[in-house]
Design brief:
Helix 1 packs across helix 2, helix 4 packs parallel to helix 5 and helix 6 packs across helix 7. The protein is of the alpha+beta class. The radius of gyration is 20 Å and the shape is globular. It folds into two domains: 164 residues, Thermophilic metalloprotease (M29) (Thermophilic metalloprotease-like), CATH 3.40.1830; 201 residues, no CATH class. Helices cover 32% and strands 25% of the residues.
């Protein structure tokens, strides 16, 4: 049965996110589970007199493809991965953007892949991802699955409704409400973050602040910048779990000196955490700092696309910066790690140049209160 909410979501992706015009051509990379949404996107694409190429994916196929890669061979694996990236770069020469629809039946599917393979794949695909992320329009969405519903602790029907509700919030209103926060972040120099296990200072001086209201991620609701690369000092403890390289991490704690993560722990996963941070020199520096405010996302369930938008949270990202908010940090890693500062998660404070901006997850200045749930 056709769900009309898919038509609403498809229109949002095409008009608000990609800004598709008649004659435009774009790519859709989608897990096969997301076929109902892809059909709605193609229908709306036809109405816009535009064009779309569809590449269907599947988690198990992705795992099996990566299992063919052997970094210790004669270089043929690396050569193949580079050719694959080059093919995609050539394909996007005439495409204006991409819709990416993930769908996780098993978010641990890639956990058995050798970290060296993950690093090699990330290194080879980086030129292509940089092209799409920094020079094309794009939007990312995660189609709801029973597995994700189970991780969220919801029935599938309730999770399905939750995903569509938080994805189709009033982004036009959000764009208006976030402007004062973007101005404050843009004008700020020193940031001080306090909370349980966290006492962190850094500068964001002269680095742009970018509001995100459905233009690239759905769901959305954040405003990001980046710290001056060597300015980060202190300690931070993240209270939301996170999956990276198919492994679940909890209670990640970083200590910084002159911007660099000099000590990193995550309980039993400490060794794997440090493997990720040793991917390249930039992985131990921070490429993004962001405040989140989607009013309908309240709790984490180990899904970054949703968790990084939690009302009253911020994320602090080891790895590459974005071109829109550059701090000079380059890496194959970009890992959004989330800390929630609402009272039920221990509370916390964020200060800009000595002014209290947010306390226990709520914005304090009058011009920012419209962002509170």
């Amino acid at each position: 049965m056709h769900d009309p909410r898919f038509d609403t979501l498809a229109s949002l992706m095409l008009s608000h996110s990609l800004k598709v015009n008649p004659g435009d051509a774009f790519n859709i990379t989608a897990d096969i589970n997301a076929l109902p949404l892809v059909k709605s996107i193609l229908k709306k694409t036809s109405e816009k007199h535009a064009f779309a190429n569809v590449d269907f994916t599947h988690q198990e196929i992705s795992r099996l493809q990566l299992s063919l890669v052997r970094p210790s061979d004669d270089g043929s694996s690396e050569a193949f991965l580079k050719r694959k990236a080059a093919w995609n770069i050539e394909k996007f020469d005439t495409l204006m953007g991409e819709i990416v629809i993930r769908s996780y039946n098993n978010d641990q599917e890639l956990s058995a892949i050798d970290p060296e393979v993950r690093r090699l794949d990330a290194r080879c695909v980086k030129p292509f991802r940089d092209l799409v992320i920094n020079h094309r329009r794009w939007v990312l969405f995660e189609y709801p699955t029973p597995a994700q519903a189970q991780r969220a602790g919801l029935s599938y029907d309730d999770y399905f409704d939750f995903v569509l509700a938080v994805s189709c919030v009033d982004y036009a209103k959000m764009q208006r409400d976030v402007k004062p926060l973007a101005r404050r972040m843009q004008d700020a120099d020193r940031v001080h973050i306090k909370g349980p296990g966290t006492d962190l200072t850094f500068s964001v001086k002269e680095i742009p602040a970018i509001p995100c209201c459905g233009e690239y991620n759905i769901p959305d609701g954040e405003c990001f910048t980046a710290p001056v690369r060597e300015s980060v000092e202190g300690v931070i403890t993240f209270n939301a779990p996170s999956i990276y390289w198919g492994t679940t991490f909890a209670n990640i704690r970083f200590e910084f000196e002159k911007g660099r993560i000099v000590r990193a722990t995550a309980g039993e996963q400490t060794d794997k955490l440090n493997q990720i941070l040793d991917s390249d020199p930039g992985a131990r520096y921070i490429g993004e700092f962001s405040l989140a405010f989607n009013p309908l996302i309240q709790t984490p369930f180990c899904n970054t696309l949703f968790d990084e938008k939690i009302a009253g949270s911020f994320h602090f990202t080891p790895g590459a910066c974005y071109d829109e908010a550059p701090n000079g940090n380059e890496s194959t890693v970009h890992w959004d790690l989330v800390c929630i500062q609402r009272p039920e998660y221990g509370g916390g404070e964020i200060w800009f140049d000595g002014e209290l901006i947010r306390k226990d997850g709520l914005f304090i200045p009058d011009d920012l209160k419209a962002l509170n749930p």
